C-alpha cells in the first residue's frame, strides 16, 4: 500500500504572529517556519502504518516555495521514503492545492492520502475534502483512529457528542485530528539519512494547474484585545446580563 | 535590500552563514525535546540533586549524544557547529544542571576516549557512550590544583602490566553517577618536564581503590551530581592508559578547546532564555500605570544586553567554525570562555534585578538561573586564566 502525505510549511506554532504594517498580510520575514502540526500527525500515522507492515511506501509532497523542501526533509527524517516539491511562490488557495494534489495522485496512484485536517496558518479545513471530491474518492475527516483492512479503511472521527466510525473503500482520503497520535522526533541519524532520500521538483504547470489566487485579501488586522471580564454575584445576575447586555439568550 | 537578502528574509530560515539545514533541523528537534521532556521534570531533578539516567538514554536514542562520533558507534559525524547547537539549546532549558550533565558526558569527558582511545578501548565503550548506556566523567581538578593543571599530585605508578593510582580529585561533574572516569595523573619521574609528566587513564566504576566521596552541595547546577573522588592503591590494567604516557597534558589542553566552546554556547543559550523570560515578565508587570517594559532605563539596559548576547553568540559560532575547519582557534575560544562566562552573569544580574522581589524568591526561574550562571566564569578555565591566553596572543 502506497501512502501520500501532503505537508505544508507554515509559521511555527510558537511564533507570535504579527500583521504587516501595511495590512497586506502577516509578517513572514525572519519568522520561524515549521511543518503544519496536523501534517506531522499525518506523517506519523503513515509511518506507523509502514511499521505495522500495512504501508510499503510513503511519499511526502509539499506545494510551496523552494524552502518547503525543508518541510519535506523533516518528513523524510521522520521516516517518509521520498518527496515531491511542487514549486509555487506566493499564496496557494486550497482549491489550487487540491487540484495539484489530484495531479500528483493521478501520477503516483496511492491507496491512501493522509492530510492534516487544516493548516494552522489560515485554518481553512478544505483541502482534504476538495481533493476527495475532485478524485471521487471516499473521505474520512478529523480522524482519531485509522485502521486499514482488506481494500478498505476504518476511520474513527471526532464529531460533536462522540465518535463516529466510517468504513471507506480504498483508495481514500483521510484527514487527521489532534488526538490521532503523537508525532515522533526526527533523530539525528535519521536527519542525516534523510539528506540522501530523493526529492523530485515539479511545477504547478506540470499538472496543468494555474495556481493564481481567486480571492483578494482586502486587509489584515490584529484581533482586538480582549476586554476585562466581570464577576457576577449570582446566577440571576448572570442570566440578566446574558439577556440584556450580551443579548445571547 | 539585495535580492539575496530579500530571499533570505522571506525564507524565514537562519541567515547565518555558519549553519546548514541539518544543523537547523537538529536545533528544532532539541528544542522540542527540551520543551517536552526536560522542562516539565527539571525541578524534580534539582530537588533530587542529579539528572536521571533515563533522560540520557532518551537523548542517546535521538542521537544527541553522538553528534560528532563515528557512524560505526551510532554517531552522526557532524561538526563543532552541531555541538554548539546542542549546547546552546540545552542551555536554553533554564536547567543548566541538566545541561552540564549531558555536555560533560558528550563533550568534555568522552572526548578523551574518542580522541586518544585505542581501537580496543573505543570498541569497548563508544557505542555505549553514544547510546547513553555508559556515562562519562573527566577528573582533572584536585584540592591542590585547578587552573594550574600541571600542579596535580595524583600519581600513577607502573607496576607490571598495571598502573596504580593514588590521590584525590574534586568538583568532578557526573562524579557520583558516572560509569567511566577519564582521570589525569602524574607519571613522569623526578626531573621530567611538568608538561610531559601527565597521563590520562580510563577508570571504570567499581574498580577497587576508586572511592566516590561525598556528593558536593553546590550554589547552583543542583540537578548535576558533583563529587570528590579518592584513589587509594587503585590498580588499572596498563591497557587503560588513554593515549601515550606523558601526553595527558596536551590531550587535556586540546579537549579544553572544545569544552570552552561548549560552555560558551551553553552560556549564550542560558542568557537568551533569561532575556526571553524577563521580557515576558516586563511586558506584563505593571508599575506606575504602565508595563515595566515602558521604562526607558529598563528597555535600554535589556537592549544592550541583547546586543551583547548576540555578539557573544556570533563569537561562539565563529570559534566553532574555525575549529570545524581544522584551524587553531585558541585565541577565539579563550575569548569565548572569558566573554560569555562573564556576560551570562551580567545578564542574570540584570534580569534578576528587573524581577524585583520575585527574583529573590526560590520559586522564580531567574533565581535558579542566576545561581547556575555563577560557575560559568570559573569552571573550565576561569575568566582571568582565559584572558591571559588572549593577552599572550595580542599585539605580536
Ligand atoms: C560545579 C563545578 C563542576 C566542575 N566540574 C569539573 C569536572 O568535571 N572535572 C574537573 O576536572 N574539574 C571540574 N571543575 C573544576 C574547575 O574546572 C575548576 O574549579 C577551575 O578550573 C578553577 O580551578 P580552582 O577551583 O582550583 O581555582 P584556582 O585555580 O585556585 O583559582 C581560583 C581563582 O583565582 C583566579 N586565578 C586563577 N589563576 C589565575 C591566573 N593565572 N591569573 C589571574 N587569576 C587567576 C581565578 O579567578 C580563579 O577562579 C568543576 C568546578 C565546579 C565549580
Explain this structure.
The complex is a heterodimer of chains A (249) and B (396). Chain A has 249 residues and is α/β, with parallel strands linked by helices. Chain A is built from 6 helices and 11 strands. The two termini of chain B are 39 Å apart. In chain B, helix 5 crosses helix 8. In chain B, a hairpin with a 2-residue loop joins strand 9 (286-287) and strand 10. Chain B has 12 helices and 10 strands. Chain B is globular, with a radius of gyration of 22 Å. The chains are: A alpha/beta (249), B alpha+beta (396). Chains A and B meet through helix 2 and helix 5 of A and helix 1 and helix 2 of B. The site of flavin-adenine dinucleotide (FAD) has 22 residues of chain B, from strand 1, strand 3 and helix 12. Chain B: Its cofactor is FAD. Chain B: Residues 246-394 form the Acyl-CoA dehydrogenase/oxidase C-terminal domain. Chain B: Belongs to the acyl-CoA dehydrogenase family. Chain B: This is Acyl-CoA dehydrogenase.
Helical region count of chain A? 6
How many structurally independent domains of chain A? 1
| Share of helix of chain B, binned | 40-55%
Number of domains of chain B: 3
Biggest sheet of chain A, strands in spatial order?
A: 9-8-7-10-6-1-4-5-11
Give the percentage of residues in beta strands of chain A: 25-35%
SS-based class of chain A: alpha/beta
Organism (chain B): Enterovirga rhinocerotis
InterPro entries (chain B): Acyl-CoA_DH_CS, Acyl-CoA_Oxase/DH_mid-dom, Acyl-CoA_Oxase/DH_mid-dom_sf, AcylCo_DH-like_C, AcylCo_DH/oxidase_C, AcylCoA_DH/ox_N, AcylCoA_DH/ox_N_sf, AcylCoA_DH/oxidase_NM_dom_sf
Domain Acyl-CoA oxidase/dehydrogenase middle (chain B): 137-234
Cofactor (chain B): FAD
Amino acid at each position: 500500500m502506497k501512502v501520500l502525505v501532503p505537508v505544508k510549511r507554515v509559521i511555527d506554532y510558537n511564533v507570535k504572529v504579527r500583521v504587516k504594517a501595511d495590512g497586506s498580510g502577516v509578517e513572514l520575514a525572519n519568522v520561524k517556519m515549521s511543518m503544519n502540526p496536523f501534517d506531522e500527525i499525518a506523517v506519523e500515522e503513515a509511518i506507523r502504518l509502514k511499521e505495522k507492515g500495512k504501508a510499503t511506501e510513503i511519499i511526502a509532497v509539499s506545494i510551496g516555495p523552494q524552502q518547503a523542501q525543508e518541510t519535506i526533509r523533516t518528513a523524510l527524517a521522520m521516516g517518509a521514503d521520498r518527496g515531491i516539491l511542487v514549486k509555487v511562490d506566493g499564496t496557494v488557495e486550497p482549491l489550487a492545492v487540491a487540484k495539484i494534489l489530484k495531479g500528483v495522485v493521478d501520477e503516483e496512484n496511492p491507496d491512501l492520502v493522509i492530510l492534516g485536517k487544516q493548516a494552522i496558518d489560515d485554518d481553512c479545513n478544505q483541502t482534504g475534502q476538495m481533493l476527495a471530491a475532485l478524485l471521487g474518492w471516499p473521505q474520512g475527516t478529523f480522524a482519531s483512529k485509522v485502521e486499514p483492512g482488506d481494500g478498505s479503511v476504518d476511520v474513527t472521527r471526532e464529531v460533536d457528542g462522540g465518535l463516529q466510525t466510517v468504513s471507506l473503500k480504498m483508495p481514500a482520503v483521510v484527514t487527521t485530528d489532534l488526538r490521532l497520535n503523537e508525532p515522533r522526533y526526527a533523530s539525528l541519524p535519521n536527519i542525516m539519512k534523510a539528506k540522501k532520500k530523493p526529492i523530485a521538483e515539479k511545477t504547478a504547470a506540470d499538472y496543468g494547474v494555474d495556481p493564481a489566487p481567486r480571492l483578494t485579501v482586502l486587509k489584515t488586522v490584529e484581533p482586538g484585545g480582549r476586554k476585562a471580564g466581570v464577576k457576577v454575584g449570582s446566577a440571576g445576575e448572570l442570566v440578566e446580563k446574558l439577556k440584556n447586555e450580551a443579548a445571547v439568550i | 535590500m539585495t535580492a539575496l537578502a530579500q530571499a533570505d528574509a522571506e525564507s524565514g530560515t537562519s541567515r547565518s552563514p555558519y549553519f546548514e539545514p541539518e544543523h537547523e533541523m537538529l536545533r528544532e528537534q532539541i528544542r522540542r525535546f527540551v520543551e517536552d521532556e526536560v522542562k516539565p521534570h527539571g525541578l524534580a531533578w534539582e530537588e533530587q540533586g542529579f539528572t536521571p539516567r533515563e533522560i540520557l538514554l532518551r537523548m542517546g536514542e535521538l542521537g544527541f549524544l553522538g553528534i560528532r562520533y563515528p557512524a560505526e558507534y551510532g554517531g552522526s559525524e557532524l561538526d563543532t557547529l552541531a555541538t554548539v547547537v546542542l549546547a546552546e539549546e540545552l542551555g536554553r532549558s533554564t536547567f543548566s544542571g541538566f545541561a552540564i550533565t549531558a555536555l560533560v558526558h558528550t563533550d568534555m569527558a568522552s572526548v578523551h576516549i574518542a580522541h586518544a582511545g585505542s581501537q580496543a578501548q573505543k570498541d569497548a565503550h563508544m557505542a555505549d557512550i553514544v547510546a547513553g548506556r555508559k556515562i562519562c566523567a573527566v577528573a582533572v581538578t584536585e584540592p591542590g590544583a585547578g587552573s594550574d593543571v600541571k600542579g596535580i599530585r595524583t600519581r600513577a605508578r607502573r607496576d607490571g602490566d598495571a598502573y596504580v593510582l593514588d590521590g584525590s580529585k574534586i568538583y568532578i561533574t557526573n562524579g557520583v553517577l558516572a560509569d567511566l572516569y577519564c582521570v589525569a595523573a602524574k607519571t613522569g619521574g623526578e626531573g621530567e618536564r611538568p608538561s610531559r609528566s601527565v597521563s590520562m587513564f580510563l577508570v571504570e566504576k567499581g574498580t577497587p581503590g576508586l572511592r566516590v566521596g561525598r556528593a558536593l552541595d553546590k550554589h547552583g547546577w543542583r540537578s548535576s551530581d558533583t563529587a570528590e573522588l579518592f584513589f587509594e592503591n587503585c590498580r588499572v590494567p596498563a591497557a587503560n592508559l588513554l593515549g601515550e604516557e606523558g601526553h595527558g597534558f596536551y590531550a587535556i589542553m586540546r579537549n579544553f578547546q572544545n569544552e570552552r566552546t561548549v560552555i560558551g554556547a551553553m552560556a549564550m543559550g542560558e542568557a537568551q532564555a533569561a532575556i526571553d523570560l524577563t521580557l515576558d515578565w516586563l511586558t506584563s508587570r505593571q508599575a506606575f500605570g504602565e508595563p515595566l517594559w515602558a521604562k526607558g532605563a529598563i528597555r535600554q539596559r535589556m537592549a544592550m544586553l541583547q546586543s551583547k548576547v548576540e555578539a557573544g553568540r556570533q563569537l561562539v559560532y565563529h570559534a566553532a567554525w574555525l575549529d570545524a575547519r581544522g584551524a587553531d582557534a585558541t585565541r577565539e575560544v579563550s575569548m569565548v570562555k572569558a566573554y560569555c562566562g562573564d556576560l551570562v552573569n551580567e545578564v542574570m544580574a540584570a534580569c534578576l534585578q528587573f524581577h524585583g522581589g520575585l527574583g529573590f524568591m526560590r520559586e522564580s526561574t531567574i533565581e535558579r538561573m542566576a545561581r547556575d550562571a555563577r560557575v560559568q566564569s570559573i569552571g573550565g578555565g576561569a575568566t582571568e586564566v582565559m584572558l591571559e591566553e588572549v593577552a599572550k596572543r595580542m599585539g605580536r
